[in-house]
Amino acid sequence: MTAAATGVRLECDGAVATVTLTRPDVLNAQTPAMWQAMRDFSRKLPGDVRVVVVRGEGRAFSAGLDLSVAGASGPGSFAELSTLPEQECADRIAELQDAFTWLHRPDLVSIAAVQGHAIGAGFQLALACDLRVLAEDARFSMAEVTLGLVPDLAGTKRLVELVGYSRALELCATGRRLDAAEADRIGLATLVVPTGELAGAVSDLTAGLLANDRDAVVEIKALLAGASGRTPAEQERAEREAQTRRLRELAGRGE
C-alpha cells in the first residue's frame, strides 16, 4: 500500500532508513493502518541499514491516536477491541506493539526527530527510538489517562528507564504536557536544537553513528541496553565477552 493510503512512508538510502508519518493535516495522528505498515517496515529493511530516522511531516511529530478512527466502530476501534475475549484483545494489542518495538532491534540505532506535538502514541513512538533529537518547539504528553486508558505501545518501560519511576508515574497519571527544555532536563532528550536546525542535527548525529565500525556499535548497544538488568559482575562479564569478540574479529579470527 502507498504512503497516501497508510499515512506513513519508508525510504532507504544506503545505511539510513527514514520512516515518515505523512498525515500533516491531522498532525500525523496515528491509525491501525499506519501501525500495520510500520510493523511491516522491519521486514522490508535492506541488510545494510544501520540507522533508522523517524520523523513527521509538517509542524508536528504526531498528535497521537486518531480518535476519529479509534472512536468509530470499525476494525481496530475501541468498540471492536472491547467486544473481543480478553486474550484475543491482548493478542491484538501485541500486534500493534510490534509497530514500535522493531525500533529496538539490536542491529539498528533509531533516532526520533521530534518537532511540535508528540502526544500519546506520538510520545511512545519517540520513546521507541534509541535517541531523541528535539526541536525547541517539541511538546510531549502521555495523554492516554485523559481517555481512561493506559500507555500500551511499549512506552512505559522506556519512560521509567529514562526518567525514573516517580517522574514516569507523574507524567502518565496526570497526562500533563512538558516542553523541550524540561524533556532535556529530565533525560528524555538526546539533544535540543532550534526548530530550523532539526534536520541538520539529525543528519550530523547519523553521520557520527555511521563513522564507526558497525559491529562495535552493535556490541555497545547490546551492552548498554542490557546493563540495567545485570548485576555489576554480570555486566563486567558481558564487557569481557564483547571485547573478546571484537578483538578476534579485528584480528581476522572471528567466526
Largest sheet: 6 strands, mixed
Radius of gyration (CA) equals 19 Å
Mean pLDDT: 95
Strand sequence of the main sheet, in spatial order? 1-2-3-4-6-9
Structural class: alpha/beta
The poorly predicted ranges are none
Strand content: 15-25%
Identify the quaternary structure here: single chain
Tally of contiguous helical segments: 12
Q: What is the 3D shape?
A: globular
Helix percent reads 40-55%
Number of strands: 9
Describe the structure.
Helices cover 47% and strands 16% of the residues. The chain is α/β, with parallel strands linked by helices and 255 residues long. Helix 2 crosses helix 5, helix 7 packs across helix 8 and helix 11 packs antiparallel against helix 12. The longest helix has 19 residues. The mean pLDDT is 95.
Summarize the SSE layout with pairings:
Layout: H1 3-6, E1 8-13, E2 16-21, H2 32-44, E3 51-56, H3 67-70, H4 78-83, H5 86-101, E4 109-114, E5 117-119, H6 121-128, E6 131-135, E7 139-141, H7 155-163, H8 165-174, E8 177-179, H9 180-186, E9 191-193, H10 198-210, H11 214-225, H12 232-250
Parallel strand pairs: 2-3, 3-4, 4-6, 5-7, 6-9
Antiparallel strand pairs: 1-2, 7-8
